[in-house]
Amino acid sequence: MIICRTIADLKEKLHTLRSGGKSVGFVPTMGYLHEGHASLLRKARERDDVVVLSIFVNPMQFGPGEDLDRYPRNEERDLALAESCGCDLVFLPVQEEMYPSRPLTSVKISGLTERLCGASRPGHFDGVGLVVGKLFNLVSPTRAYFGMKDAQQVAVIKTMTADLNFDVEIVTGEIVREPDGLALSSRNVYLSPVQREQAVVLSRSLREAKEMCMKPGMTSGGLIKAVREAINGAQDAVIDYVELLLYPSLEPVPEDQPLNELRETFIVALAVKFGTTRLIDNALFDHTGGESACSEQ
Amino acid sequence: MIICRTIADLKEKLHTLRSGGKSVGFVPTMGYLHEGHASLLRKARERDDVVVLSIFVNPMQFGPGEDLDRYPRNEERDLALAESCGCDLVFLPVQEEMYPSRPLTSVKISGLTERLCGASRPGHFDGVGLVVGKLFNLVSPTRAYFGMKDAQQVAVIKTMTADLNFDVEIVTGEIVREPDGLALSSRNVYLSPVQREQAVVLSRSLREAKEMCMKPGMTSGGLIKAVREAINGAQDAVIDYVELLLYPSLEPVPEDQPLNELRETFIVALAVKFGTTRLIDNALFDHTGGESACSEQ
Hints:
The structure is a homodimer. The first copy, chain A, contains 10 helices and 10 strands. Chain A is an alpha/beta fold. Chain A has 2 domains: 2-173, Rossmann fold (3-Layer(aba) Sandwich); 186-285, Pantoate-beta-alanine ligase, C-terminal domain (Pantoate--beta-alanine Ligase, Chain: A,domain 2, 2-Layer Sandwich). The radius of gyration of chain A is 20 Å and the shape is globular. Strand 5 of chain A pairs antiparallel with strand 5 (105-109) of chain B, so a sheet runs across the interface.
């Protein structure tokens, strides 16, 4: 497995690896890899000739007071995991390599970024758009792989890719969960044992929402209320947001909308804080197929 | 010469043309080509294996009330000129091909776009950034060629290219002028005979600025005042802006700055309206070399 720490080295090594028209699968990450990242790497390994992983904690997508300084890192373990998934090349730039000076350019994706994490974390998706644009130009992947835990990020990146005509296919991976349901996240390491136990409420509330959503008379507002009540049952949980939106447009759904009459895919997305640790989770509800309503994506 | 009107056709034809690792030189334009565009095509022909021209009147870089609807077009003449310059492929998309739906993504370049045409035409450079980003991704050029008449555009595109790590070398071409000095522009066609005669004041005022700039005691403010007075000597000229800025940073220069003490390259840029027609011109002053101060770029 090749490790590149500079852009010049990345370009040289990639040029050799992809020669003869080989396809390149790219998994961009902020490191501290878990099974969710591994599932994306394995998916890329199945489909692409060359698998590239990037590890870069992108300062531009963190706001003031967020956890940039304490974001967990473990390069040695990340490299071992990447290698075990059949990764060919890891791009591990330092900050000065990605941002030799403060960038003047920003990539804004309007509409999609005004809700959910975009509302809670102003500027977050500008930073994501910028770094993903940079990485797409540096790696020129055939396919790029993103996890659905960050469902809004997936919608944003798909839109940016289409609007800017990046010649990249966006492939998504399902949310990977702990046995008790907690969605894997690099940030789970921040949780105290008590918080970790309570954090299962995120996935449990979404599972309950799946069961409730087709009840006659269940509305958008009713489902949100039920999810909020379930989460508030956990003593230390502080809700950032619980929203029900169309997906991937992230357009709002009227509160009084009966869900069994909705013929579009929607998402229930939530962000919950335990102490200083902010966790997100979501579930997609496919109402386009009639009979398959509320089935797991 | 190949003519492509769809993205799919462009990609297919380009794939064949560039096979074997040929370099691609790209000249993006809004058509109604003149000798300035031709000089860029010939420059590309000298340096690159494959020369690609795009002609697309990009609606996203026009503001409300600007001349989008009456922007001059002459496809037949453009194609003949492109062919005579040795162009290999012309990309001529319709609007629906470039913008199948209203784009949610915008590319903003801050700092550089807050003065000159960026101030006079709000949103103009967001539209330029978006379409150039799209075209770079569609054409993947080795080099892209831009004329220095749009000096601010060159600064903006160089910054965007570096910030987003586009793997494209930006090559600039000098301003091409009519025998009397008027900078070539597709918009010159709008001028009435009287306006056309008066429009020579733009280039003449810049030539006079070149002569005056090293006079002992000449300040930034003094030079701007002299240029404004020269332009106002033309009866129908209405000044939009006359500015003296560092180039390419476009940072301001204090009004009382003695120019013969300035050890940086600066630009005098102007925009002047004749009736509804807005013309721009500029001159670069290279003060980095000591003796070569105020020499033509």
